[in-house]
Amino acid sequence: MRLAKELALVLASLALALGIGAAVAQLSGLSPGAVYRELWRGAFADRYRLFQTLTQATPIMFTSLSFLVAFRVGLFNIGAEGQLYMGAFFGAWAGFTFVLPPYVHTVVALLVGALAGALFGFLPGWLRARRGTNEFVSTMMLSYVAIYFTSWLVSPRGPYHGTQWANQTVRILRSAELPRFVTGMQLHWGLAIAGILSIFLWYFLFRTPRGYELRAVGQNPGAAHYAGIDVPRTMILALTLAGALAGLGGAAEILGTHRRFIEFFSPGYGWDGIAGGLIARAHPLAVIPAAILIGALRAGGMGMDRAGVAPADFASVLQGIVIFFVVAPELFRVFRRIRRERRALVHSQP
Amino acid sequence: MPAEAVRMEGIVKRFPGVVANAGIDFSLSWGEVHGLLGENGAGKTVLMSILYGLYQPDSGQIYVRGEPVRMKSPSVAIRLGIGMVHQHFMLVPRLTVLENMAVGWEPCLGPFLHRAAMKKRIEALVEQYGLSVDPEARVEELSVGEQQRVEILKALYRGAEILILDEPTAVLTEQEVEALFKTVRALRDQGKAVVFITHKLHEALALCDRVTVLRKGKRVDTVPTSETTPEKLAEMMVGREVVFRVQPKPVSREGKELLRVENLTVHDDRGLTAVQNVSFALLDHEILGIAGVEGNGQRELVEALTGLRPTKAGKVSLDGKEATGLPARELAKLGLVHIPEDRQATGLVLPFSLAENVILGRQRENGFALGPWAQLRHRILHYAEEAVRTFSIVAPSVRTPVQNLSGGNQQRVVLARELGREPKVVVAHQPTRGLDVAGMEFVWERLLELRERGCGVLLVSMDLDEILMLADRVAVMYRGEIAGIWPRAEANKYKLGLAMLGGKVAAR
């Protein structure tokens, strides 16, 4: 019943957003009918476009899961973008440095990427749990550290400047590639990994004592402490896991799509993960459709631009409106919770 | 100006399940310090919150300076010259004293705050009432006592002539209390009217001109302090009669010390000593009651005994085994369980289902999990259903979030979980707080059952009736120390009440 209610809410918000989008299109002198037709066609019209949507959705699934794990323990991981970059670079590094048999090499490179992302989750987690540093700020700031650190690594003065014509590394070895489903299309096995991880994460959160403890800390740290749960450790664990998930997403994106690390390669997959996690109402299985929705908006937006019915900027506007409206109800809930906690904090002071 | 500053007539205020004020009359004169005395939950703060416009009364009339008024909000009260200093300060820690004051009366110099004008006015007030505070200091750098002075100053700065102080001494040190008293006396001598809410007898007698005693939402009496004694006030506060609803059965005791506490010292959150040198033993088949006014170290004692707060000094042993400083999980393994004071903030995870709450703290036990990576869900659900039956929990299903259950049923979930661990020692902290009569009786019966089964129960409660009804022995905590321990046969409300309020009683 709760599921039906949430789903109805999401669909209603989506309809409202598309309605407002249509009004904006009309006011901008565009044809709403043409805009939506091209948006739909760009996202779903044929196999090629559908695969394009799913390719866009893949990294967003990882970053949405990343946001969600932290959210479940009561923390905000705003830094998935940086963790994604860490995972992407070090995944690529393992891909062109190690010499290993096919598939083994892929798995190792993915794990190295996850590890690099985990480090950028562990740091803010540790700071939050042991020093009280606001993770909202630290994860966001570390994001920029990661983005520009990896950019420097592949810049002309950096140690991994692989090609003369662009700031990128050399190509990864064939043995490290994440296979594509169909030759000639970018869609790769990362999508399957993300799907399996969604299910695994659902199992972890709702069917294991560790996941239970993680959720207990998120819902009521006081009760968790009373129940003998190590609250700081659980927070560190959750943010580390969040970092690992985003890092894995970055590594998969490199090994599957780009096959080399390119500076600033992400069009904001990490930030999309915040929206994805909130649209999914922090439920791991709901992340799959949520990420596909955002991926469709991205792919459809490109289609709209190519068809010439609206400029690329309008596609961004539409994406913004849709994400805002679908996320808004959850966002209200989050802010209400924060306000309640603040108030509780004020009252507990002598 | 009429002699009466405030008159409240027939004030009634109901909250769901409780009548906080049941038709209270109250009057306050100019140039008077009026003590409002009563136990926790007697209705003191509610009555004054109504005067300050924070709550609307269900019925009754308020007069200020002889005029009938309706206190729709605190801003109305402030305009009428009423100020209230709450137990929890309402200050912005990052701002300076002066900036905190500016909220309400902001003299401007163009677009800027006229700091000099404000400073002058504050300094005049500081001078007049001996409230030494630096207007340029940041509030977060001030001690608790200084922050309180800022609150009083803020009220006066806004032109308050009627000042309500809600348990102002609860957070102060001995010296700070002295300074506060001086200030209050200065205010009285200036002709202002002060309400002093407290549950400390000696303070009321030392400072106030008249005292109104409340008990369970009703006014017992209003007396001039010159015509009363600590004994009389204590009796008014706690009452005489004890209503026995359940009856402990006779038991044969082996005399085993299930819990032994020696010279225990514990600090509070601010690092001050909250429990000092406390020693006692809890025997098998015994309920040891710990009575006392809230805030005398009971919470810190309970938290230290249950592994939620570090001990500073002393020794705790559990059934003969060393247990000092063990974490909650280890203590549970040794057979000590804890029914926490606040079931919603501590005892339960409200959005979790009944089944999930019934295993809180036990989530890794063999019966409920296979290592850390698999829960045994059917066992958990089965166990929850059994708990629902044994403890007569009324819930639509074991999958219902406990936030949808009534307070009594929430407490039953906590009891089912903790007592289901087959404990030797139960630390029950205010186990019946906020429950209706049926809920209370259910808890009492469970505690007596534990006693008959041979457990030791440490019952920490503010409710003297409850303690006198259930406990085999009664200890009273006052200012972090055990003021005395009496067998029930030798304890009575009067004796305990006096000890709770800091009076000297011959202890054994």
Question: Would you mind describing this structure in some detail?
Answer:
The complex is a heterodimer of chains A (350) and B (508). By secondary structure, chain A is an all-alpha fold. Chain A is built from 13 helices and no strands. In chain A, helix 1 crosses helix 2, helix 3 packs antiparallel against helix 10 and helix 4 packs across helix 10. The longest helix of chain A has 37 residues. Helices cover 32% and strands 26% of the residues of chain B. In chain B, the strands form 5 sheets. In chain B, strands 6-9-10-3-11-12 form a 6-stranded mixed beta sheet, with helices on both faces. In chain B, strand 16 and strand 17 form a beta hairpin. In chain B, helix 8 packs across helix 17 and helix 14 packs parallel to helix 15. Chain B is globular, with a radius of gyration of 25 Å. The relative contact order of chain B is 0.11. The interface between A and B is medium-sized, with 22 and 34 residues.
Q: State the shape of chain B.
A: globular
Mean pLDDT of chain A: 90
Terminal CA distance of chain B: 55 Å
User: What kind of sheet is the major sheet of chain A?
Assistant: none
Mean pLDDT of chain B: 88
Radius of gyration of chain B: 25 Å
Give the C-alpha Rg of chain A: 21 Å
Number of strands of chain A: 0
Any chance you could write out the topology, listing elements then pairs?
The complex is a heterodimer of chains A (350) and B (508).
Chain A: H1 2-27, H2 32-44, H3 47-72, H4 80-97, H5 104-131, H6 135-153, H7 190-207, H8 209-219, H9 221-226, H10 231-258, H11 269-279, H12 287-307, H13 312-348
Chain B: E1 4-15, E2 18-29, E3 33-37, H1 44-51, E4 59-64, E5 67-69, H2 74-79, E6 82-85, H3 97-102, E7 108-109, E8 112-113, H4 115-129, H5 144-157, E9 162-166, H6 174-189, E10 193-198, H7 201-207, E11 210-215, E12 218-224, H8 230-238, E13 257-267, E14 273-283, E15 286-291, H9 298-305, E16 313-318, E17 321-322, H10 328-333, E18 336-339, H11 343-347, H12 354-358, H13 377-390, H14 407-419, E19 425-429, H15 437-453, E20 456-460, H16 464-470, E21 473-478, E22 481-487, H17 493-500
Parallel strand pairs in B: 3-10, 3-11, 6-9, 9-10, 15-20, 15-21, 18-19, 19-20
Antiparallel strand pairs in B: 1-2, 1-4, 4-5, 7-8, 11-12, 13-14, 13-16, 16-17, 21-22
Helix pairs in contact in B: 8-17, 14-15
